Amino acid sequence: MIRIPLIAYACFCTVATLNAVEISKSLIRIEATSQEPNYKTPWSPGDVSSGVGAGFVVDGKRIMTNAHVVSNARFLSISKEGDPNPYLAKILHIAHDCDLALLSVEDPAFFKGTSPLEFGGVPELASVVSAYGYPLGGTRLSVTRGIVSRIDFQPYSHSGMDSHLAIQIDAAINPGNSGGPVMQNGKVVGVAFQGYSGDIAQNVGYMIPTPVIQRFLTDVKDGHYDQYVDLALTYRNLFNPASRQALGLKDETTGVQVCSVYSGGAAYGIVKPGDVILKIDGHTVSSDGTIPLEDEAVPLDEVVERKFKGEKVQLDILREGKPITLTVPLNEPWPFKLHSNLYDEKPRFVVAGGLVFQPVDQNFMRAHEPSNQRLNYIFDYFINDELHTNRPEIVVLSNILPDPVNAYAEEFRYSVVDEVNGHSIKRIEDIATAFDEQTDYYVIKFAGGGRPIVLERKAIEEARPRIRGRYGVTSEKNLEK
Amino acid sequence: MKSIYHLRAVWIALIFVLAIESAPANDNPTVTASASKFLLRVNSTSQFYDFFRPWIKKPPFSRRGIGALIDGGRILVTADLIANSTFIELENPASTQKSTATVELVDYDCNLAVLRPADPAFLSGMQPIALDGPLKVGDQATILQLEPNGDIAQTLGRITSISVGSYPSDLRDLLLFKLVVPLQQRDGSFTLPAVRDDRLIGMLMRYDARNQSADIVPTAVIRHFLAELDSPTYQGFARLGMAFAPLRDPQLRRYIGLKEPGGIYVTGITPRGSADIAGIKKGDVILAMDGISIDQDGNYEDPDYGRIPFSHLTNTIKHPGTVLPFKILRNGQTLEIPVTMQVANDEQAISKTHLFDEAPKYVILGGLVFIELSRPYLKEWGNKWASSAPQRLVYYDAFQNELPADRGRIVILSQVLPTPDTIGYEDLENIVVTRVNGHPIKSLTDLSEAAKKPVDGFQKIEFEEDPKFVFLDAASIQSNAENLKKHYALPSLERL
């Protein structure tokens, strides 16, 4: 399944309090010039590209749009309907985990004639909505109309790792609709953000519903976005009568089995694998993991979704047949960013003797697509198999810039570095530290044994100007995100 | 198209072929009519097991190759041709007379097998072919095929490389000839004899039509196989059980204090293999074996074939049981370690590389299907199995030498046949079992035994991954067992 973020915009309106002309006064066309870091040549500044998305004016002289419209942006130029002038905008807050962002405009004159749009609730199934935006990059506003097809938890493709409530609509929304408001009765009921490419599914578009939007707006009230908090555990249905009986459940419909509780997460040390969650904040958990909330059966995660850093959640648990009540303080977001797409980050790296060392993350894997079995396993199972307890970061030899000093290193590409001169490598910083040491030989050992790479300091120093000149290596390390 | 391909090819052997004149059309057959009396068609019907559903076999298929009659009334073919065979038939090309055959011995390591006809009289009037000696790169050889009418088709080719290369069994590197020869596909198999001057130089086992390149099992390997066959117990080919890296990098050589030329760096030791038992360790540098020095790429000077990898010496020239003194540099000290060459015991492997002529084991408990991890199981994911099969299983198979020595087999819940007992478990697949009813699981036999001891009426099955554990109702799965068999047409609920 490929969900594509929609760099564009969508909107629609029923015959209601605000008509399309009025709404259009609050619509913003956003042209973003962004620079994607290059994880294959991490010292280079990266390619520049531009895209068009939509946004709309909200309370407080702010503009709401999708995070993916303005990610990695170097320059944001915005315009509004009926005003030919472009204005400069800046990112005020950006939430990659729910694909929302708020922009500010330097010129206060920009907001003259605009009025902030108000938010509505969750629209009913089959009710009509209108999407506003600039699909396919045009300069004139487009409005499409459709109905609410489904309300469900969906993966948000921008981060690739987060799932939140999302609403599926059948209004035509396309790249350029991203960030645009979806309206009902003159109120914003969602922000258009992703869809399928036409060869996978037709008339399926998704919008971010107002519970997610409101949570974002509340989170940033203190001037800082804290991210979603997370229990960092996995659970599973308890349909099986034998499992229910063995775990001591007396009825036939409640409870889910806790499978893994990840170290570093909020529930670690409080909830245990094998616990049965019976209730969350007093809501009874069905054996499929849903709770009744506002007349809908939603995943129990929704309770935590609506909370903020510093709040608590109460769990009624059956542990070894005995009921207990646990309180989990929600201080941590999902502890691992390894598998998330990352934005507005500089690639970190160290170059020594033409060997390029980089920490592995999703951005790295997407750029390199290494076919190294050991690395693929470590990356895929880093969290599930708790490999992070040994190495908080996976550091690999990502590239070899050929030079006599490293003539015999090619076979080690994408090998995971274990040690340099006896110092175990747990982070990219450890590589920099190890190569700062003054020693005759640098001995690099890799996961799985094999032979070491040995580089002589003299040879590295002789090679330095050659490699810098020949490969345009403008900097030999960056340790800052 | 062909010339473009040649331009792009970086294959040394091919460049070599272009450098010499292409072989002239062969006007003079190198095999005389009388000498062709060693050829036999071999029709083999095979049926492979379906590792996804280990209780059934895949549809049967037939292949046809050509066997060579050798001394002792034996018919030499590749092991590939008769792998998982259900029926083997021999056909005399001249008389078209047929006979069924039995396998006297098959060794998938060296990809060779010898057959015998059910009726010894079937071979009367035929003449065995003798084995030729060593060949050199550039020598010509003829590949023999049979026309439908029994005539012999001869195609001349030239040896382009002689080295140690991988055999189809996946775990074997043995001496291999590469021959460039334009062959037609005639019989659905490239098991064909290669001859020179009325003598057998090897058996063709693989053919790459794009490059017109044939892989040949040479007589050096065949002789070893036959010598083992004539010994009181067949042991096959010894294996050192050691991975190494070349020692070309002068910086590394200076760092480890290696003054003399040559030497290879030991990077991995197979547990319980010959090198492990002898006490060779990771990080050792092997300078020589049996007084013969090993160069920095792991080659030695072979009197017959020139510079080829040392494994030819340890695996093929020497027979299992031979003691070879290894000259080793360890921590700056030179020492001599005697290594007794031994055959690898694949039975001890954590994940077996191949499973021919052997039904895969399984246990079905209430509808949960358990198997042992093996390479053939992973290969069911198709050509790209290494990237498309579950990565944890691929990792366990690829790096099994790094797992604890007492790890035992990797038992997997491979799939669920939904039954009333498995409600809620339908989506579970390819997860590794750690314990059943509290007993650690290191084989399917362990699992079968542990399942006989339910706790409080439940079968508790624990996994490495989510969901971490599930329960089954022991009494219920027992009473539903017959239904399960009937419903899914299972011949048996376990095969150990």
Strand content of chain B: 35-45%
Shape of chain A: flat
* Quaternary state of the chains: heterodimer
- The number of helices of chain B is 11
Count structural domains of chain A. 3
Care to count the β-strands of chain A?
A: 30
User: What is the CA-based Rg of chain A, rounded?
Assistant: 26 Å
CATH class of the largest domain in chain A: Mainly Beta
N-C termini distance of chain B: 53 Å
Strand order of the largest sheet of chain A: 9-10-11-14-13-12
Low-confidence runs of chain A (pLDDT<50, min 5 residues)? 6-17
Structure commentary:
The complex is a heterodimer of chains A (481) and B (496). Chain A has three domains: 3-216, Beta Barrel (Thrombin, subunit H); 233-329, PDZ domain (Pdz3 Domain), CATH 2.30.42; 349-478, N-terminal domain of MutM-like DNA repair proteins, CATH 3.20.190. Helices cover 14% and strands 38% of the residues of chain A. In chain A, the strands form six sheets. In chain A, strands 9-10-11-14-13-12 form a six-stranded antiparallel β-barrel. Chain A has nine helices and 30 strands. Chain A has 481 residues and is mainly beta. Chain B has eleven helices and 29 strands. In chain B, a hairpin with a 2-residue loop joins strand 22 (362-365) and strand 23. Chain B has helices at 2-8, 12-19, 219-230, 250-255, 274-278, 311-317, 375-379, 385-388, 391-398, 444-450, 474-487, and strands at 39-46, 61-70, 74-77, 85-91, 98-107, 112-117, 130-131, 140-146, 152-166, 173-180, 192-196, 199-208, 213-218, 242-246, 264-269, 285-289, 292-293, 299-302, 306-309, 323-330, 333-340, 362-365, 368-372, 411-416, 431-436, 439-440, 458-463, 469-473, 494-495. Chain B folds into three domains: 1-237, Thrombin, subunit H; 242-340, PDZ domain (Pdz3 Domain); 349-495, N-terminal domain of MutM-like DNA repair proteins. Chain B has 496 residues and is an alpha+beta fold. In chain B, the strands form five sheets. In chain B, strands 22, 23, 24, 25, 26, 27, 28 and 29 form an eight-stranded antiparallel β-sheet that branches. Chain B has a six-stranded antiparallel barrel with strand order 1-2-3-6-5-4. Residues 1-29 of chain B have low confidence and may be disordered.
